Amino acid sequence: MSDEFIIEDSIKIIKSDETFYNPAQEINRNLTKLVLKTYFKSVKEPIIFLAMEASGLRGILLHKELNDAKICINDILPEAVEMIKSNLKLNDIKEYKFVENKFNFDENRIYISQQDCVSLMINNSRCFNAIDIDPFGSSNVFIAAAINAVKNGGLLCFTCTDRGSLHTFVGKCFVKYDTKIKCNFDESEMGLRVLLSYISRTAAKYDCSIEPLISLDVDYYLRVFVKVKRGSGNNSKKQNSFFYFCNCKNRKESNTKNNLCEVCGEQMDFYGPFWNKNLQNSEFISSVLNELTETGENKRLIGMLKCMKQEIRIPFTYNLHDFGKVFKFEGIKLKKLMSVLYNSEYQVSLVHHSANSFKTNAPYKIIIDICRAIINKDSSKYNLNKNEEIENLFKVNYYRGLFKSNIGPGKILNK
């Protein structure tokens, strides 16, 4: 950053009291750029709506990377719109069209509007190939309008910075997302499954279904990229489930015959609904990684994408620290536990949002039994040897040390 300008990826924006810029969101901006570039590789003149742009940085980045895309830049604040115009000029973008209410597209590539984004999306039904909603707070109040405004097969990109509402504060989660959660049951994944469930159920009201391509939990926010399919609203019934959760961290889907925990014997309580399908599309992530290596190495983003690519579909994660708290297990290594689970023919994977968590389709009773076998070095029931597949999984460089930026939310200004 210079004294007068903020520079990111060769794009310059003016630094002033009206400039909202957060370095922690750079990975969000870079990932969004790569996702849209990959998704629309074979689409001619995709129309992309940026609902609340503030400085215009993201719009200018997309204009640079997506050669024929039509970028619709909106913000409700007049000072933000003036800043967007100034930053366009600063980056030698002189041609744009100002839109009052309805978008009518011509040879221009940049369109600017100063409207409430919900009203704008309602008035432009099935207009956009992609919509980016990146507020400070929750995206929940924008989801219905975005589904109305996106084309069949289009892409919705949502950010939520209210992580506490998604996995900690039970009342807020129920009010905002219509889901009953257990406080801090699975901080690693619950928020993403709550958010995707809400998007899925909202989409069903418009006879639409969703397919997540990438679901990210990083720093202080969640970010999801979902494909929207029209005429398939009934799919929502299969995409969401209720679960029984127990204080010992056991969990079961609601079709269980009883709600007693077979591990600790306690009564399990009923929670949900949660998204029960994939969080990630591995094939799409591979395509994004190909774009990333072509445009220069970003170790943090590459590591996250590699980790997300290998995540299995099974809902929710387990954390080694929880085993220590609940069962007083100490000294169990994640690689060892995953090796024994894999040796026992269960699926296992790492997760991108926690270095101490993992996913598996093994019953909780088996996981705890294996932990005891590892501690007691008892190989009578389980193969405790190393597993080559798991060894190779841990050899991949995920750049774990770079995952957290330690930069919080807020308005980053020149001081």
Short description:
Belongs to the class I-like SAM-binding methyltransferase superfamily. Trm1 family. The protein is of the alpha/beta class and 415 residues long.
Describe the protein's architecture and organization.
This protein has 415 residues and is an alpha/beta fold. It folds into two domains: 5-284, Vaccinia Virus protein VP39 (Rossmann fold); 319-402, Phenylalanyl-tRNA Synthetase, Chain B, domain 1 (2-Layer Sandwich), CATH 3.30.56. The chain has 15 helices and 16 strands. It has an eight-stranded mixed beta sheet, sandwiched between helices. The radius of gyration is 23 Å and the shape is globular. Residues 411-415 have low confidence and may be disordered. InterPro entries: SAM-dependent_MTases_sf (IPR029063), Trm1 (IPR002905), tRNA_met_Trm1_C (IPR042296). It comes from Hepatospora eriocheir. This is tRNA (guanine(26)-N(2))-dimethyltransferase.
Provide the CATH superfamily of the largest domain.
Vaccinia Virus protein VP39
By secondary-structure content and strand pairing, the structural class works out as alpha/beta
In the CATH hierarchy, what is the class of the largest domain?
Alpha Beta
Tell me the strand order in the biggest sheet.
5-6-4-3-7-8-10-9
| Tally of alpha and pi helices | 15
User: In percent, how helical is the residue content?
Assistant: 25-40%
Into how many domains do the coordinates divide?
A: 2
Describe the biggest sheet? Answer: 8 strands, mixed
CATH architecture of the largest domain: 3-Layer(aba) Sandwich
CATH topology of the largest domain: Rossmann fold
Contiguous low-pLDDT stretches (5 residues minimum) are 411-415
GO molecular function: tRNA (guanine(26)-N2)-dimethyltransferase activity; tRNA binding
EC number: 2.1.1.216
Family: Belongs to the class I-like SAM-binding methyltransferase superfamily. Trm1 family.
Enzyme class: transferase
